[in-house]
Design a protein that fits this description.
Helices cover 41% and strands 20% of the residues. The protein has 372 residues and is α/β, with parallel strands linked by helices. It folds into three domains: 132 residues, Globins (Globin-like), CATH 1.10.490; 91 residues, Translation factors (Elongation Factor Tu (Ef-tu), domain 3, Beta Barrel); 122 residues, Rossmann fold (3-Layer(aba) Sandwich), CATH 3.40.50. The longest helix has 23 residues. The two termini are 25 Å apart.
């Protein structure tokens, strides 16, 4: 396994800096091999292209951790049921991927790399299909939008009831959403912002800043109560370790509050002994849309504390600076379970701060909106 993982990671360095060419070649080859596959993908492919890169990078990072590798791929297979992926599609995608890797890597590619990726893709395909076959849930759920609340020009909080079939998720996980009325065949992942409940209702926090995807824009600006969305199977491992006795640090930036809020809600049901410290950052006070709800939880649970911070609001009556710097000022966090959620730059900065604080990597879980 060590040599296998080494070959994958080593060969990935040959194409990592030329991702656009790799992905362009992959999709061109894929649709040439099977033109009927094109109708399974959205008209605008930008978001789909990014997801391919994320999946490849994640697979090459966890391949030397067999347990994580297996669970990630099985969950990915369950998720891909929403695309109606069949065995023949997996075969075609394998051919297109190998061809794209060879073409992009150029003269640096060799037979060892080729065989390693053949073996890797065979394992990936087998585990994904096994995960899909073992799943008794539907390929996706229809969900009715119950409420839609705007918070400023670019943020909305939605509640959605999954219809017809129970949707089981864990606090801290995310699901893919499609809005077929506005953007058919476009899926994007969003964290669930509440703990599991018997009502089959999920809460989502969605932001659409300048340059954000069209789906987020549609969900914030055009979606209304009563509309139907589609929800795919839950994924993600930023979940609570109930066996741990360590205190908990949660760091949230912007709508990264969503999974942190879900984790805190889950903790209110059973926690009695673990101190929980939530740091919630944004640029301006108006962006701290979830602060009032957090403060209500603080009033009801003495083990919970919340520290808000703003990076660009000198009039804010609280902590000032980037949330990663604020967290550092309150440390050390070496003996805590740490959960981090937010934009890619915010997560990178916080992970760097926790590493400098010598927090053991197994005690850190994170979720990021965008590539790290």
């Amino acid at each position: 396994m060590d040599n296998f993982a080494r070959l994958l990671k080593e060969s990935w360095t040959l194409v990592e800096e030329d991702r656009d060419r790799l992905i362009g070649h992959f999709y061109a080859r894929l649709f040439l091999l099977d033109p009927d596959l094109r109708k399974l993908f959205p008209v605008q492919m930008a978001a789909q292209r990014d997801r391919l890169v994320e999946a490849i990078v994640t697979a090459t990072q966890v391949v030397d951790d067999p347990e994580s590798f297996d669970e990630y791929l099985r969950s990915l297979g369950r998720d891909h049921r929403k695309y109606h992926a069949a065995a023949t599609h997996y075969e075609t995608m394998g051919v297109a991927l190998l061809d794209a890797l060879r073409s992009t890597a150029g003269d640096g590619w060799n037979l060892e790399y080729d065989q390693a990726w053949r073996d890797a893709y065979a394992a990936i395909s087998e585990k994904m299909q096994a995960g899909a076959a073992a799943d008794d849930d539907p390929p996706f759920w229809h969900g009715e939008v119950l409420t839609h609340e705007r918070h400023g020009p670019d943020t909305a909080v939605l509640t959605v009831r999954a219809l017809q079939h129970p949707l089981r998720w864990k606090a801290g996980q995310y699901v893919s959403i499609e809005a077929p009325r506005h953007l058919p065949r476009v899926w994007r992942t969003y964290s669930v912002a509440n703990a599991p409940n018997d009502d089959n209702v999920l809460e989502f926090h969605i932001r659409t800043p300048a340059g954000a995807g069209w789906l987020s824009g549609a969900l914030v600006r055009r979606t209304r109560p009563g509309e139907l969305l589609r929800l795919a199977a839950p994924m993600g491992s930023m979940t609570l370790d109930r066996e741990s006795t360590r205190d908990i640090l949660c760091v949230a930036g912007g709508v990264g509050l969503a999974p942190v809020k879900a984790l805190v809600e889950e903790l209110t049901r059973w926690n009695r002994t673990r101190w929980v410290h939530v740091f919630y950052g944004a640029r301006h006070a108006d962006d701290l849309y979830g602060l009032a709800g957090l403060e209500e939880l603080v009033a009801a649970h003495p083990w919970l504390s919340v520290t808000p911070a703003c990076s660009d609001d000198p009039d804010f009556d609280g902590e000032h600076g980037e949330i990663s710097d604020v967290v550092t000022r309150y440390g050390p966090w070496t003996t805590h379970d740490c959960y981090v959620s937010g934009s890619a730059p915010m997560v990178r900065a916080t992970l760097r701060a926790l590493a400098e604080d010598e927090v053991p990597p197994p005690n850190i879980r994170y979720d990021t909106f965008g590539n790290l």
